[in-house]
Amino acid sequence: MRGRNDSCCEKPIDWLLLTTRPVDTFAQAKAVVDGYSQRWRIEDFHRVWKSSACRVEETQLRSAEAIQVWATMLASVAGRIERLRLLARKAPDQPACVDLSDHELRALLILKRQQRRRNEVIPDVVPNIGVATLWIAELGGYTGKSSGGPLEP
To answer: Which among 2, 44, 53, 151 could disulfide-bond with 6, CB atoms 3.0 to 4.6 Å apart, if both were Cys?
Structure first.
């Protein structure tokens, strides 16, 4: 028998999600909920775009056109950072070529060899996406001393 505090006896959460989309069918409702479920990834993108890696609001450009072009370029960078971080967390053992081109991988290996730690051996083979993402983060200044690194959830 189940006691009063077992999960089957708890009152379900009743919530309301406001939307401007039509929701007349289950498929439409599912599409709205699926879209809402991406909210945290969108928040992460904006965090990278606005404050961590890209700092789009710190531009010293003056013309609206130049700011728009710069912000668009940085949005692309922020999206790429978030994609790499997601891949590194969800499937770190996949080869890095799942998202990095041959040119990017060659450049990464060259840069990593130039900035390697003492006694660190950089292999000639393509690293997995987890290792490649960590190398990119380190080349960008990540030291591993703060939370929120490329492989941390």
So the answer is: 2
Count of CA atoms in the C-beta half-sphere (13 A) of 152: 8
pTM for this one? 0.72
| Angle (deg, nearest 10), helices 102-114 and 129-139 | 50
Write the Ramachandran bin of 142: left for phi over 0, alpha for psi from -120 to 50, otherwise beta.
Answer: beta
Express each pLDDT in 101-112 by its tens digit: 999 999 999 999
Cβ neighbours around 53 below 10 Å, total = 19
> Where do the domains of the chain lie?
8-90, 93-153
Max CA separation in the chain (angstroms): 70
HSE-CB for 65 with a 13 A CA cutoff: 0
